């Protein structure tokens, strides 16, 4: 059975790092309920959830995606670009060690998993405030021997690459062209987010299904018009912490 590594919401989530969104009050109980709904959705789609305990002193720790990049051959433990998140990494490595050989991003590199888009054998890594050139180079060195086509991607106006573009079906990417140029992903077809829903490009491909925040009904309609089955979850409270549906899990077989 495929696995989803998730982490419970930290009681300190209101002190999260923010870059491109304004700080708003975050209701911890509501965020926890939304996270539970999200995990149940993954379980309904055939995944076994490994629930890690909350890290009280780490407000962003629910966003486990940033601490690792997991492919079939290896789990790469990252070095997050926000110093406040460095303490999250060891427990993610411990959770993944029974399932994969581990490789590690080393200083002076920084790399957030949210900047790593994998679609088949194509891997594009966003060059952002959280991921530097050395992080891109180290991940390329780790993944290229396994046959991945690894390269950088440029973006603007958002935190991570997967805020702007995600894989939603074989050969199809969901994109916000205002934040990323789709020509950087050759050989793919595209679904554009509805202009009124700029953050809708963050969608999570789960087997043959797609998980999307219920806040984006117009983009959902565009996806379903392309024959993509969409499961929606309420992630609006987690979005106040600049998180999306890809951020909250590490999925692998």
Compute the gyration radius: what is it?
16 Å
Q: Can you identify the CATH class?
A: Alpha Beta
Strand order of the largest sheet: 2-1-15
Helix and strand element order: EHEEEHEEEHEHEEEEEHEHE
- What class do helices, strands and sheet pairing give? alpha/beta
Query: CATH superfamily name?
Result: L-arginine/glycine Amidinotransferase, Chain A
Number of domains: 1
Low-confidence stretches: none
Identify the overall geometry.
Answer: globular
For the secondary structure, the number of strands is: 15
Secondary structure tally, helices:
6
**Range of helix content:** 10-25%
CATH architecture: 5-stranded Propeller
In the CATH hierarchy, the third-tier topology is known as: L-arginine/glycine Amidinotransferase, Chain A
Q: End-to-end distance, in Å?
A: 7 Å
Beta content: 15-25%
- Mean pLDDT, rounded to whole units? 97
**How would a crystallographer describe the biggest sheet?**
3 strands, mixed
What does this structure look like?
This protein has a single domain (3-252), classed as L-arginine/glycine Amidinotransferase, Chain A, CATH 3.75.10.10. It is built from 6 helices and 15 strands. Strand 1 (3-7), helix 1 (28-44) and strand 2 form a beta-alpha-beta unit. It is an alpha/beta fold and 253 residues long. Helices cover 21% and strands 24% of the residues. It is globular, with a radius of gyration of 16 Å. The chain starts with a strand and ends with a strand. It has helices at 28-44, 89-96, 133-143, 161-164, 217-225, 236-239, and strands at residues 3-7, 48-52, 68-70, 75-77, 102-104, 116-119, 122-126, 149-153, 165-169, 172-175, 189-192, 204-206, 209-213, 230-233, 250-252. The strands form 5 sheets. The chain has a 3-stranded mixed β-sheet, with helices on both faces. A 3-stranded mixed β-sheet has the order 3-4-5, with helices on one face. It has a 3-stranded mixed β-sheet with strand order 6-7-8, with helices on one face. The mean pLDDT is 97.
């Amino acid at each position: 059975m495929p696995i989803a590594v998730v982490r419970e919401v930290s009681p300190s989530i209101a002190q999260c790092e923010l870059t491109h969104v304004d700080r708003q009050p975050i209701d911890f109980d509501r965020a926890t309920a939304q996270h539970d709904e999200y995990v149940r959705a993954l379980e309904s789609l055939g995944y076994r959830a490994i629930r890690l305990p909350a890290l009280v002193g780490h407000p962003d720790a629910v966003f486990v995606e940033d601490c690792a990049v997991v492919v079939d051959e290896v789990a790469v433990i990252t070095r997050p670009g926000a110093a406040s998140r460095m303490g999250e990494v060891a427990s993610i490595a411990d959770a993944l060690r029974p399932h994969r050989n581990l490789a590690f991003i080393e200083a002076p590199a920084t790399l957030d998993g949210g900047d790593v888009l994998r679609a088949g054998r194509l891997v594009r890594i966003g060059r952002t405030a959280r991921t530097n050139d050395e992080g891109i180079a180290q991940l390329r060195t780790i993944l290229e021997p396994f046959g991945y086509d690894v390269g950088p991607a440029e973006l603007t106006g958002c935190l991570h690459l997967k805020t702007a573009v995600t894989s939603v079906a074989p050969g199809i990417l969901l994109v916000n062209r205002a934040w990323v140029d789709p020509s950087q992903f050759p050989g793919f077809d595209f679904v554009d987010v509805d202009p009124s829903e700029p953050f809708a490009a963050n969608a999570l491909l789960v087997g043959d299904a797609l998980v999307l925040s219920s806040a984006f009904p117009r983009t959902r309609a565009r996806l379903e018009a392309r024959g993509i089955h969409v499961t929606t979850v309420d992630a609006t409270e987690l979005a106040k912490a600049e998180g999306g549906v890809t951020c909250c899990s590490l999925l692998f077989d």
